[in-house]
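re: the backbone from monday

yeah here it is again, tokenized this time
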């Protein structure tokens, strides 16, 4: 977003960002575009609003010039934000890194004004692989699923994730077995113990 009516500044933490959004929306200076589709990104947005005491869909109900729930996916929501900005309005949205890097060369009037900062994991958007319970669903190919998760969590699979790029920018960061300020603690010891045996067939493979 080029004009930045919410006055977001480099280094603003996410609480400051959401507070500035609230104030700018209340004064009619901006429109926030929400996915409004129950997705992980939408759930994260609602969580961030809740941390400053806001239920956005209630506070700005039936005020699409302030808060618009698109009910669509990330790409469509980003397009609506772009069209709003390009039409001289003041649109913002919360977008995942992968979608942004896929479209940032197209939506040139949009800018990233706030990102996760070092030591703050509140904007992390983790992905996970969860096998279906074979006791409850005996028709599933449980062993094949376990082999696939072994592939994803193996050093080879993790290297593939780290090397995947769009427009020469890394989209994802592996985190299996990692615990630090960037990834938080995404893997517990029991998970490592469960999936390590399934990684053996991928030993020695390199990207």
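seq for it, each position gets an aa:
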């Amino acid at each position: 977003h080029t004009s930045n009516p919410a006055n977001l500044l480099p280094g603003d933490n996410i609480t400051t960002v959401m507070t500035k959004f609230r104030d700018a929306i209340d004064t009619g200076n901006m429109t926030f575009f929400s996915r409004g589709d129950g997705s992980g990104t939408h759930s994260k947005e609602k969580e961030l609003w809740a941390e400053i005491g806001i239920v956005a869909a209630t506070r700005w109900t039936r005020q699409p010039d302030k808060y618009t729930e698109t009910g669509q996916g990330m790409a469509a929501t980003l397009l609506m934000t772009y069209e709003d900005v390009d039409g001289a309005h003041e649109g913002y949205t919360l977008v995942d890194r992968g979608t942004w890097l896929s479209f940032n060369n197209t939506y040139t009037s949009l800018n990233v004004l706030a990102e996760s900062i070092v030591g703050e994991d509140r904007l992390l958007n983790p992905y996970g692989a969860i096998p279906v319970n074979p006791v409850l669903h005996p028709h599933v190919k449980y062993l094949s699923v376990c082999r696939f998760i072994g592939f994803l969590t193996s050093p080879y699979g993790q290297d593939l994730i780290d090397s995947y790029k769009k427009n020469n920018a890394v989209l994802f960061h592996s985190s299996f077995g990692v615990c630090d300020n960037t990834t938080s603690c995404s893997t517990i010891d029991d998970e490592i113990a469960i999936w390590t045996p399934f990684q053996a067939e991928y030993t020695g493979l390199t990207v």
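The two ends are 37 Å apart (CA to CA). The first strand starts at residue 31 and ends at 34.
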